[in-house]
Structures are given as C-alpha cells and as structure tokens.
Amino acid sequence: MRFLLILSSIVFLISIIVVLVHGDRLLLGDPIKLDNDDVKYIHSARVLLNEGTLVYNSGNDPSAFIMPGLTIILSGFMAIFGEQHGGVTAFRIFQAFLQAICIFPVYYIAKYTFNHRVAIITSLLVAVYLPDYFTSGSILTESIFRFIVLVLLCVMITALHTKKTSWYIGVGLLTASAAYFKPQASLFPGIMLFLWLCYHYSFKEIVRFTLTIIAAYIVLLIPWWIRNYITFGHFILFTNSAGSPFLLGTQIRYELPPDGFFAAYPQYDPSTIFTGADQVAVAKGLDVLKYGLIHEPLKYIHHYTIGRLRALYLVPFYLHDIFSIKKNIVGNIQTIIVWGGLIGMFWACVRKTGKSLLPILLTLFYFTAIQIPFVAMSRYGYPVMTFFILFMSYMIYQVILIFTKEFTAKNNHGLPPHPRHESGV
C-alpha cells in the first residue's frame, strides 16, 4: 500500500506539472470556431451553467447529441472556479487526480489476474504511459471513462466472489455512470453471464443479480430519459447521434465509396454521403457497407478486422507532445506495448490455468467488439490499453523468471551438495 501511495503521488505531481506547463495548448480545437470536441464541451458547460440548457452542435438550443456526464462535471468546476481558465484548470487537476488513483484498481486487477510481482510491474508501466498524461490534461471523456471502467471491473470481480446484492447494485450504478460518458459501456455487465456460468451460479442467482444490475442502471439513467422526453417530446435512450459513428465507420482512408456506388444509389450525393445522424446516417451506412461487401469484399473485411484493430490500438492517443517527446517515439512504444501484450496474452492462456484470466480477456473482447461497427480511432481504444500493459507485464515477469532460473542454475552447476546433519538438529 505504501508503494502504491508513493507511486500515485508521483503520477499526480507529474500530471499537475503537465497541466500547468501545457495548459490550453492541449486543446485540439479553436475556442472561437468550436471545431473539435474539447472546445465544444467547454462551450456546452458554459451554456449549461448560465442558461441551464445542455447544448452541443446546436448553438444555444437543447441537444441530445452527446451524453451529459462530462458537461455536468465541467460546469460544476466552472461554477466554483470560474468559467474561464480557473474552471477548466481545476477540471484538469481533477482528471490528474483520477489518473493517479487509477494505480490502485490497476494493481488490484493485475494481482487478481496474476500475482503481486506482475501487479507491481503493471503499476510502474502504467505510471509512465505518456498518453495518460495527455488524456488527463485534455477536455474529453476518456480519462473519467477509463477510471470508471477500471473501478467497475474491480466491483464486478468482487461481486462475482462475494455474491452480495450490494456489490451488484454497485455494478449497475457504475455501468450507468459510465454510460453518462460513453453509452457503449451499457452492455459491459453482459460479460457477467459467462463468469456466472464458469463459477456455477444457479439459475435463480443469475436472474436475481441480472435484475439487480438492470434496476440500479435504470434508476441512475431515469433523469436523462425524463429530460429528453420533456425537451424533445419523445423517448431517447442515449443520444440521437448514434448513426453518425456507424456511417463514418464505413469510410476507408477518408475515401468515397467504391466506383459504381452512386450509380447504384442515385439518391446519394458524393459531397454529403458521409454527413448526417440518426436513422438517415444508419441507412446510408448500411447501403455503403452492403455495396462494399459485394463489390470489394476483401477490402471491407480487412477494414472491419485488421484495420479496426490497428486504428484502435496501434496508434497512441497522444495528440500533443508532452515535454517535447515526439509522437513517433510514443508510437513506437505503443507498438511494443500492443505486441508485447499480445505475446503475454498468448503466453498466459497457454501457461496459466484457472478462471482469473476471464475478466480482463472478456473486457478486452467486449470493448473491441462493441467498437467494430463504428468509426475506430485511438481515442476509443485508449481506455483498455491498460490491459495490454498488464499482459506485457506478465510477459516481462516470465522473461525475468527464465533468466533468473538460468542464472541460478549456472551458478549452482558443479557446486558440492550441502552437507546433511544426521543429528536432526
């Protein structure tokens, strides 16, 4: 515990230095033009604070384009520390704190999955993972979302072994909390079904705990549903922008659909094919995907498999140099982490028996699979990069064990055996 406190304190200190040194240079957009998500969140928080209206891509009109989690928290800091630099800086320091205390759930998950030594290695590597410092200084959902996912996984593991209703209520509440930032987390507790079966839960227990999770989840999301119904006159589950990521996910290398698409679908215009949201965007995306799979199947299959994985994980979520460390250097480190993690994952599956691997394997599978239909980028893969680091730590631990055993065997080779004491003393 002392080691974790010291390490998390160091991470917090470094992260605060990053926030104070880089400040608004970490912004991706122009606060005047509102041309990127971070500056749109800042604008949204200011309008919410002053007008009581949640807006996003809608001027000062109400919007359901985003989930409200980040806007609400950011507006809270603005209410206390001011709408300009004070509130934004305080929010960044809050994210730096979350980054620092992430060390604790990371250690717990790694120790549960493997052992104390692997957990120590994982904690150290997570502490020096540069994209974390960029993320804690940015005004985006990724930092808070990663923290919630790590804590949620810890609570799921605890609930699995204790079978206490209170822990399953925690699973539902944390899942809803995550959904307030990224709705794709909503089905994450579905992995519990596989864990329940592996741990021989009875059918009655499965039904009871499933209903417990769903009830807690619904309770926390009810205010959002009520707000949307009152504001727009109809039920909106999460947002009305889900179609846009799906449509953009059909675009390959920022190119137009294959030759002949617009002849087959004359209702679409090349200049607007990749614009729109909700049902219109979904219809466009399905048409592009259907045409692409028929006429260029290998290209589209590659795009939705290898291409997706590359975009999610091999590119670091590091959009601004921290302490003059260039993106290409961080990109090379990212490649080492991903491949090292894959090797460690394979190694663990071959060597390690038992069920403790299941939670992180299922977590990685879920957050990868849920992203496949939609546009993929490093920002969306970032929250689960911790698990690649965990598996790479296991690989490092195994390599150290091999070299240690060889060194010990070499030193002991040829030495006389220890004398035996017949007296028994």
From TrEMBL:
Name of the molecule in the record: Dolichyl-phosphate-mannose-protein mannosyltransferase
Mode of membrane association: Multi-pass membrane protein
A GO molecular-function descriptor: pentosyltransferase activity
GO biological process terms held by the UniProt record: lipopolysaccharide biosynthetic process
Species whose genome carries this gene: Paenibacillus tianmuensis
Coiled-coil regions, chain positions: none
Segments crossing the lipid bilayer: 64-82, 89-108, 114-131, 143-160, 180-199, 206-226, 329-350, 357-376, 382-403
Compartments (UniProt record): Cell membrane
A Pfam match: PMT_2
Main location: membrane
GO cellular component: plasma membrane
Domain Glycosyltransferase RgtA/B/C/D-like: 70-224
Keyword entries, A-Z: Cell membrane, Glycosyltransferase, Membrane, Transferase, Transmembrane, Transmembrane helix
